[in-house]
Write a structure and sequence with these properties.
The protein is mostly helical. The protein has 5 helices and no strands. Among the domains are: 11-46, no CATH class; 81-124. The relative contact order is 0.07.
């Protein structure tokens, strides 16, 4: 494919590039620069022109759903400061240790250092 040839792009990608280019031109960007930016954006979002074949490593819809659910659970746990299952206390952050100590109602936890929190969690 010669440089600049857009034959391998889907109609959707071409429409998207045209829309992005129009947006840049309305902001006062010169036409050639707006076109270059538009195609760079399309390439970044979709990985370039239409691809046929691929690696052949596709997941079943059920496997994709399991992966998404698992990922979502891990993201929520991380956001809430909870530890991963099987994670050692030493590998946890102080915030995670404090959250565990709060759940176990350990008194004086806010003034404890990491080592003290670990010791208190092991006892409690």
């Amino acid at each position: 494919m010669p440089r600049g040839d857009k034959d391998k792009y889907t109609d959707k990608q071409k429409r998207k590039a045209e829309h992005i280019e129009d947006s840049y031109q309305s902001q006062g960007v010169p036409k050639d620069q707006a076109e270059a930016r538009a195609w760079a954006t399309v390439n970044k979002q979709s990985g370039g022109g239409e691809r046929k074949g691929g690696s052949g490593q596709t997941k079943s819809p059920a496997a994709k759903a399991r992966s998404r659910a698992s990922s979502a659970r891990r993201a929520v746990a991380t956001k809430q400061g909870l530890a991963r299952p099987g994670q050692r206390l030493e590998d946890m952050t102080v915030a995670q240790l404090l959250e565990r100590a709060r759940q176990q109602a350990i008194a004086g936890r806010s003034r404890m250092r990491k080592a003290e929190l670990i010791e208190a969690l092991r006892k409690g």
